[in-house]
Amino acid sequence: MKHRASDARLPGHAAERVGLDRRRFLLAAGGAVGAAFLAACDSQGPQAAQSLLKLAERKNEGVERALYSHSTMDMPKANAKAAGDRFPSYFVSEQVPVWDESARGAWRLEVSGMVRTPLSLSLSDLASLPRVGYRLDHFCVEGWTAVATRTGVAMTEIAKLAGVQPGAHYVDFQSFDSDYHESWDIESAMHPQTLVVYAQDGRYLNAAWGAPARVYSPVKLGYKNTKYLTKIVFLPDRNGGYWSDRGYEWYAGV
Questions:
Q1: What are φ and ψ of residue 123, in 5° steps?
Q2: Which percentage of the chain shows pLDDT scores above 70?
Q3: pLDDT tens figures, 172-224
Q4: Same domain for 120 and 217?
Q5: Handedness of CA 74, 240, 209, 161 (dihedral sign)
Q6: Which residues contact 133 (CB under 8 A, 6 or more apart)?
Q7: Which pTM does this prediction carry?
Q8: Which residues span the domain enclosing 40?
Q9: Is the same domain home to 235 and 115?
Q10: I want to staple 251 with a disulfide (CB 3.0 to 4.6 A). Which of 16, 61, 84, 98 is the partner?
Q11: ∠ Cα 134 138 139 (to 5°)
């Protein structure tokens, strides 16, 4: 598995290898649970800290959910420069994924699961829906931030068109980038700035940025924002994700 200049990478720090990114490792280390975690890492190695890490992650998620505000909007600093063509590319396939129409037919975005009206949307279908554009921060698990203008369709619009059922508490975003997918809580998916993006900085996405479409929201860390999108599935239960199944935090809120 190869990784390019990325907004996620193979875990390097001991805390990351067992489920905490660097920022949450520091937060966890600030209290009694963190102290016990550090002791376990120093004595018997990270494996001995699994139960403490799971406890810390559950507590982190509880705090993040409590702090989450559906009305809080991301506003990059006025003097923050757009990353432009220097915006990092990330994928898990051996090479940058490109949709092959000759082999797969025309790309379409399927919306299914707990919905009354399943959807199958072409890129032109997406572009014909109410358009939303935001200048947004992108927050990486490694600690860096980049700014870009994202244009697309609000997830709330997609949910309205599909008629999402009341029992849908999670959303899984699936891609054609190998087996990459990530599931979200429905509250984050319905945030006003959560978009199905098809353009960045005034032009349609290129392959490096996740064409034909991707999900993006500033309320989630970069690795939760699935590129090369093919399916949006509304679910009653969470079902993990590419990185969360490998030890990274599932909620990954910002």
A1: -65, -40
A2: 72
A3: 999 999 989 999 999 999 999 999 999 999 999 999 999 999 999 999 999 99
A4: yes
A5: negative
A6: 149, 150, 151
A7: 0.76
A8: 14-67
A9: yes
A10: 61
A11: 145
